Fold each of these.
Amino acid sequence: MVNQASPLELERNVGNFAYPETHTHDAGVGLTEKTIHYIADIKEDPDWVRQFRLNAYKTFLSKPMPTHWASKDLEAIVFDNIRYYLSGGVQPKRNWEDVPDDVKRTFERLGIPEQERKFLAGVEAQFDSEAVYSNIKKAVGEQGVIFVGSREGLKDHPEIFRKWFGKVIPTGDNKFSALNSAVFSGGSFIYVPPGVKVKHPLQAYFRINAENFGQFERTLIICDEGSELTYMEGCTAPKFNTATLHSAVVELVAMKGAKLQYITVQNWSANVFNLVTKRGIAHEDAEVKWIDCNIGSRLTMKYPGVIMKGRRARGEVLSIALAGDGQHQDTGAKMVHAADETTSNIISKSISIGKGRATYRGLVHIPKHLKNCKNNTECDALLINSTSRTDTYPAITVRGTGNSVQHEASVSQVSAEQIFYMQQRGLTEAQAMSLSVNGFVNDLVRQFPMEYSVELKRLIELEMEGSVG
Amino acid sequence: MSNPTAVLDEVMESEPPQEHSEPTILSGPSVARSAEFPAWIREQQATAWSQFEALPFPNRKDQAWRFSSVDALDLSPYTQGPKLTETQRTEMLDRSVALDQVAGRLIFADEQLLRRDPLPEALVKRGVLLMPLERALLEHEDLFRRHFMAQPATLGSAKFAALHQAWVSSGTFVYVPRGVVVDLPIEIFHWLHAENAAVFPHIILIADELSQVTVIEHFRSAHRERAGFACGVNDLVVGQGAKVNYICAQNWNEKVLSVQMNTTTVSREASGLSLNVNLGGAYSRFESLSRLTGQGARSDLLAVSVTDGTQEFDARTLQDHICPHTTSDLLYKNALTDRARNTFGGLIRVEPHAHFTDAYQTVRNLLLSDDAEANSMPGLEILADNVKCSHGATSGQINEDEMFYLLSRGIPLPVARQLLVSGFLNEVVDRLDHPAITALVHDLIEAKFARR
């Protein structure tokens, strides 16, 4: 099936390289209260943060693995074999020149500094547990936009961040959010003041370099009244034989009339367990939009959610998942309507190739006495090979007479007629296949920022070339 | 034709509740009741009882019971009903009226067979069997053993299936031999009679190659106010090229707790259609497993429910495509009012190599009050390719334009509402190719509206 020498493998492997570890801070293997104190000491956490971590650790221990509904593959995670904190220092650099050479080479190979110059308003680059580089363009900073790491956010701006920290996603939301709350390190804390519209996206890049490592970044973004922001994150890791864990918590807050768009392009290597909790709160007239693209990882479990708390709030999830051999993309969306006239939209497209498995899992909740709430859900799955698998498990609760929901899902394969038609016009089977698959995701991909949509299209083309025959 | 007012005349309040002190069903089946059964079945029942005791009680955290009010499933009050007196028997027989023309009829009340209207001589001669289960297990042991609860209950109610197996003492056995077409429906009545009685309705229906048969089961309560518990299992086997229609008209009173588990196995070029009409019950759960095991097999899963008050209806379905070139089509429509709750959990599963599957699943909820709640979990699991699968779930309310139109024509609000709800449900009922049964189902639905 997928040929080792195919261009696709080159593409997937763009992040498959590692440099020797030169970490000065290492919390060792396994997780105990000592690990948590170690992390809190290094980060010089305020007391309340230390206590927050310790409480979360207890919650983590008390929560069972969600294997009664989720993949049994979760049992392959051995929490005692994971290293929870690795860094070369807690203070990120403001200039690429100051970043240590090997780390700088890593990000240069991934093209981050180049992208920053080209189209970003600010960049943060996280290497294992801590951000090594963090910079925001001067003009954006002068508008009052705060773009820092989680440590600085909680330490230097508690008046802004403490109010919402752990409020959108409580520690006990699930086992992995509790784990993250106990050992979080890195991630972005962003505040956009009222009325400020950040023209260019802010970007974070998450890189795992070490083996047997767990990355637990924590992100909190607050868009104050009438502001606008687009945030992008990218993720890669080298391919190790052992399991690596990535378990982030991302909280978004869109105050009245704010617009917040969060874009993820996840391309972890195939040994990474990617278990992420993402949720946003949309106040009156605000909009939270998740654009979620999952290409990598061994098992991804991620269901970005929006709680529509104010009237006319809007939530949207656009999701593309590509599941190849050995991959399980268990993705979806949660939409909780909590005010009148709120609307939500979920569009999910998945492609399963080879032995890949794509799963959509969704939740739509409209409680009683709300009026004129609407939800639309569309899930389309494309199966490429006879060994591919796709599942859909939505859960929809509606009460009352004022609301409407519709859910539709379809599963199909590339039509033989289409392929025949294109081959007849002189295209190879692989070209025809990739054209057809690109057509399947096209209307979604178009909503991505230019740089990503081009990249994604190319990735799909290459993936298809390897899969035919 | 049928006479709905007679059918639903349940006002029998004058009769005092009967006093009896039978042990409850949770103390285990009495040995006396299965004494005349062969040893092998008694062993099966003993095993089933220990399974029932070992299996955990349903938990809402279990996906198969998500959204379900598992607390309602308290089995402690229910007992085996006492033997009906002669007057009670006559009265139950008089009230067992539904279809005018049937091929055969069995009437049960509190697990006791009250009457059997045998099949016409012509059908008996051609080998068609209609008999109580306890006779079939003696006379047709092979068929019985092969099909009796042959499929494990996989949709969440394994514990209830075990309870049923441990307790079942009667039921219906239908066998239609190769090529025989039974034109008229076979009709079965199950009555709940005594206060807190428990019944375990069972039907084994085997349609051999190229045969055709329609069976309708009525589930009714003799008294409006008496609680009861029904735990039923169906084994429907549709042989090659055969055609089976199965209709379940569930019209228990609103105190009854019911759990019904149906399995349909559809072979090559065969067609199985089931229609479930859910009107009664305080809490009723309905599990339907449809297995498509041969090429060209087709399964239609239809259901309508009308719930009001605090009624809860919980449906779980699995369309299991085991073989290539098979088709299944599910259409469930629910009308909910007052504080009624409805849960649908359905799955289309296309097994590896079951290519060229066509599978559809549509659930529509019509919410008629602010406190009604509809939960939908339509699911797909596709392990093959070259399939056409889709599912859709919607929840909405009466279209205001349609309502306005009817009101502007001088139709009063309650009538207009009923017309629109009937119109909504008719799409399902009209899929049934059997005018007499369609009319009966319409009457039952209308009678339910009339009771409000």
Note: The mean pLDDT of chain A is 86.
Amino acid sequence: MGTILRRNIRMVLAISLLAALFALTAACGGSPAESPVLTNSTTSAIVTPAPNIATATQVTSISPDEAAVETPAKPTPTAMAQAPEPTEPVLINTPVPVTADLAPDFTLPSIQGTEYTLSDFRGEQPVLVVFYRAYW
Amino acid sequence: MQLLAISTDNLEGPAALAAGRGYMFPILYTSLDTSVPESYGVFNLFGDGLASASMFLIDENGEIAWQSIGENYRHQVEGAEIVEQVNKLG
């Protein structure tokens, strides 16, 4: 009788250990085979991919909690939209409007090798001056 | 109408080749001289040592007819808006 009792205790311990391992696996994101199911973020879906320990009834009592742990780890659209905000530069200097009658003149080189002077276009045609960041 | 694009980067050498592919308008650059973007009030608005993305439409008399200054880091101007402003010049 004592031997049978010890075997039963070992069996219970082994099942408990398996259940604990399963819970740990689910908490860490599960195996690749489970991931597509977890994407649906349903509580019952966590329980189904447990083919190796289907007889361990302890597993079913753990799964709902694991689902709650799993959900925040998924990147939500809101979280992704907010991600770049902390690094985006903000305006620290107010633009000073040009007060002169004429647009400030300049002569600058171009990458094509020609120098351009804004006032050369005066009386000829309008000019769209575009300040841009980095090269296109 | 003439389009003049101005970069505050140094676009000499290899950077010029990278910047110049396929564009039919002049791409000007100021290198380290910031006087031009400063004179238009668009330099270093974000503390990054660059000109803010901005546009100035200058009419045939040399006066600024319309401007759009990038006070937001993601500032963009729709093409239709530019065409509308150019058409206003007549």
Note: Chain B touches chain A through 60 residues (CB under 8 Å).
